[in-house]
Structures are given as C-alpha cells and as structure tokens.
Amino acid sequence: MLGLNRGDVAGIWSCNSYSWVPIVYACSKLGIVLCPINQAYKYKELANVLKLAQIKLLFMPGLNSSQDHVNEYHGTTGKPKAACLSQFSLVITNCMHSNSQLVNTLTRFKCTDMFATPFMVSDMLSYLEINRVCLPDLYGITMVGSPVSNELATRIPLVLPRCTGARVRFNAYQIILIARELLTRGFSQMLYYWRDETKTREVIDNNGWYITGDMAIMDEHGYLKICGRINDMIIVGGENVYPQEVEDVLRKHYMVNDAYVSKFNFVDKVIGVPDNKKGEEICAWIRLNQLDHMP
C-alpha cells in the first residue's frame, strides 16, 4: 500500500518509543532496510540523511510530542556516512536516557552485559552511588562511541564489583609495543557503506577487516591503547611523531592545564608546522594552571 519493495529504506526520526518495536519487526519481515536517525538532528541534517540513504518512508513523532524541544539542540558538525549494519549489530540510537529506567530494566531482567556510551555509564554509576543501588547480575559493560578515560575504567569495579575491568583479548595475540594501525572484525562491525563501493573498499579489506585509521599498542596483559590517528602523524626529520603522545607528556606537568599540538589539515592529511630543515616541526599550544605561587 505504501509502495515499498524489498531493499527499500525506511527511516525513524524519533525519541525511544514502544512504537519502534512493531516498526522494527515489520521492516525485518518485509525486507525493508531500517535507518535510525539521530533525534537531535536539525532539519538540514535530516535532509542530508534522507538524501544519502534514499529513504522512501519516514516515521516520526506526531504533533505535541516530547521531541519538539529536543530538535532545538544542534547535531553533529560533520555529515554522517551511511553505514549498513547486519541484524547482529542492530543499534537503535537515543541520546536521551533515564537512569532509573535503565537500572530498573537491568535489575528486572537480570542483565549480565550491556552496551552503552561512556557518558551513560558514568551517569549510571553516579545514580547507583547516590541511591545506594547495586546490580549483582551485571558483570560486563561494553562502551562504544567515544574514548574511555582511565578514571571511568577504574571507577567501574568500585561501584560494580563483578565488573573487573575493560580488556581486549584474542585467542592468540602478539604483544605490540610499537604503535601499529588497528584493524577490527566482528559481528558488531558495519558490512559496508550504503551504496558507496569506493568508500567501502577504502576502509574494509578483502578479508573483512575494518581499517580504523587508529594507531594502537597492546601490552602483555592484552590491554589495547589508542595512541592517535594515523593521519595525525608528524614526520620530523624522518622520525614519526604522534601528537597525542606529545600532548600526554605535556599534560603530566603540574603547571600545564591542557596542551594541544598544532596540526594543519592539507588534502585530508595532517602535517606539522613547516620547517625548512626537518620538513615538519612540532608546535604545541599550552594552557597553564592558575597557580598561586609560580616557581
């Protein structure tokens, strides 16, 4: 009746709702590709997604819905890519969440593992501490979407004793102390960029490995640490320098509040400050702490 055929795309631009459930199952049964859209997108960003994903049907809230005020927020600064996911990795995005509902759901269904952003996990931990609530069945948390700070990783087992830490392990792995480019593969990975074979070939190799562009090292305990982006590398007199490593060292100084190594974008590549002798040189911007007594 709606003129949709198998393989067509339907979008959802909405806050979390029970109405999502029949929509998801209906799309799966009919072979319709479902495209969840960030509820915080403004109309210009929405128009870009509709065009990019070639969405033929859009589900959205009705009049006087709770999403009216949400759309006043700004969305992302860059245009998103259309990543196609399998049913194994179906993720329905929602930037609004309720700690009480989340904790009640985890408790009611005795959840043993959960997926969330670091912000949501930090928020949940604060809720558990304030209300003196425990989650005895939860022993695993997978955090995605943004970097995980050392403070958050250390805090988790203090609030949730069964969650002993975040670790990346493989059946067999090599200890890599020199930064290498990180490749990933698994059910949670995207299959390809929607209707963009050229871009897909740039980031996924013939064996299905996703080329992240991140530089990482792995220690003897199986811990993986991201050192920076491969395109952020600065070559100083033939030596590879990663800005994040320099920034980390500078921030350890008690007088430094924050540090940023200057990088210039040039044709999708980051370069350092031009130098006639070394080719590139490092330039750091430093913000000092406001100390009462400077040495």
Architecture overview:
This protein is an alpha+beta fold. It has four domains: 9-89, no CATH class; 99-159, no CATH class; 176-228, Luciferase, Domain 3 (Luciferase, domain 3, Roll), CATH 2.30.38.10; 233-288, ANL, C-terminal domain (GMP Synthetase, Chain A, domain 3), CATH 3.30.300. The chain is built from seven helices and 18 strands. A hairpin with a 5-residue loop joins strand 9 (210-218) and strand 10. Helix 3 crosses helix 4 (118-131). The longest helix has 14 residues, at 118-131. The protein starts with 8 loop residues before the first strand and ends in a 7-residue tail after the last strand. The relative contact order is 0.08. Mean pLDDT is 76; it is low at 68-77, 91-95, 165-177 and 265-270. Residues 2-60 form the AMP-dependent synthetase/ligase domain.
Provide mean pLDDT, rounded.
76
| Strand numbers in spatial order across the main sheet | 2-1-3
Helix content: 10-25%
Q: What share of residues are in beta strands?
A: 25-35%
Overall morphology: globular
Poorly predicted sequence stretches spanning 5 or more consecutive residues:
68-77, 91-95, 165-177, 265-270
Compute the number of structural domains: 4
Q: Indicate the radius of gyration in whole angstroms.
A: 23 Å
- Report the sheet with the most strands, covering strand number, pairing sense and barrel closure: 3 strands, parallel
How many strand elements?
18
Number of helices: 7
Distance between the termini: 77 Å
Q: How would you spell out the order of helices and strands?
A: EHEHEEHEHEHEEHEEEEHEEEEEE
Structural class: alpha+beta
InterPro entries: AMP-bd_C_sf, AMP-dep_synth/lig_dom, ANL_N_sf
Family: Belongs to the ATP-dependent AMP-binding enzyme family.
GO molecular function: medium-chain fatty acid-CoA ligase activity
Organism: Medioppia subpectinata
